[in-house]
Design a protein that fits this description.
Elements (H helix, E strand, L loop, with lengths): L1 E5 L8 H14 L2 E6 L1 H5 L8 E4 L10 H7 L4 H10 L5 E3 L4 H12 L11 E5 L4 E5 L9 H17 L7 E5 L10 H11 L4 E6 L3 H4 L4 E3 L2 H31 L1
Helix pairs in contact: 3-5, 4-5, 6-7
Length: 251
């Protein structure tokens, strides 16, 4: 398997991206292609014999995704995605502008048949393993059939990538009862129930962490709030623990 890496994407690119790519090659035994400014990337590869595909442009984190992709056809993330399109790479990885990655993927690779919108996935640790949450930010406004499509994609991902047999799919809601929620979740519920998915009904926020569901679906607005809340909680707990550890050491 060959993975195209956007070497110029991320806050500490290309140094940290190159270091991570080379570490993945050593530890996972995968073949990587570094895509970016050849001179800048080569400065951090050392003596490693790694393929570099030159890209003369970079899409910044603050740029408007669609406009940036259209105007910067030689950007590193666009070139990396194009390697997948051409069959040279099996997948691409980027720590850069998420919106630009989504836009370039749609423009270069297109959509899967039967899927109207791509979704972003977040993996949450739970007491039994992991919970797949989608969408976590790609689609802030959704229709019921979009949640159905997210559920299908999430179920396939959980089964094929994470090895979860017959993954349990839940609809994120404010209560477990079928009639709970807003117009979107109320309309999506019967669509999910009528599929061959292992749909277990509505789940609540706490179920992300107790292992009740393997896949949880929601619109991107809700999913992103959940994701960022989780990140904030981890940071707060880390701060509290560090403070308590230092206090105990001093006393």
């Amino acid at each position: 398997m060959r993975i195209a890496i956007d070497a110029m994407g991320g806050d500490y690119a290309p140094q940290e991206v190159v270091a991570g790519a080379l570490q993945a090659r050593r530890e996972l035994g995968i073949d990587v292609i570094l895509v970016g400014d050849q001179e800048k990337v080569r400065a951090f590869t050392g003596e490693a014999d790694v393929e570099i595909v030159h890209a003369s442009q970079v899409i910044g984190m603050g740029e408007q995704p669609v406009l940036a992709v259209r105007r910067k056809q030689d950007a590193s993330l666009v070139r990396a995605i194009r390697l997948v399109k051409e069959g040279i790479a099996s997948a691409m990885v980027s720590a850069g502008n998420t919106g630009a990655v989504m836009a370039a993927s749609l423009l270069e690779l297109g959509r899967i048949t039967g899927i109207d919108r791509p979704a972003l996935v977040g993996l949450f640790p739970n007491v039994k393993g992991q919970t797949v949450l989608l969408d976590v930010g790609a689609n802030v406004d959704c229709r019921p059939h979009h949640l159905l499509q997210f559920a299908i994609m999430g179920s396939v991902y959980a089964e094929m990538v994470l090895g979860m047999p017959s993954p349990r799919v839940g609809l994120l809601n404010i209560g477990e009862e079928e009639g709970k929620g807003n117009e979107l979740t109320q309309a999506a519920y019967p669509l999910l129930r009528e599929t061959a998915l292992n749909f277990i009904g509505n789940v609540e926020g706490r179920d992300l962490f107790n292992g009740r569901a393997d896949v949880v679906v929601c619109d991107g607005f809700v999913g992103n709030v959940v994701l960022k809340s989780g990140e904030g909680l981890v940071m707060a707990l880390q701060h509290v623990l560090e403070k308590e550890i230092k206090r105990n050491l001093m006393t």
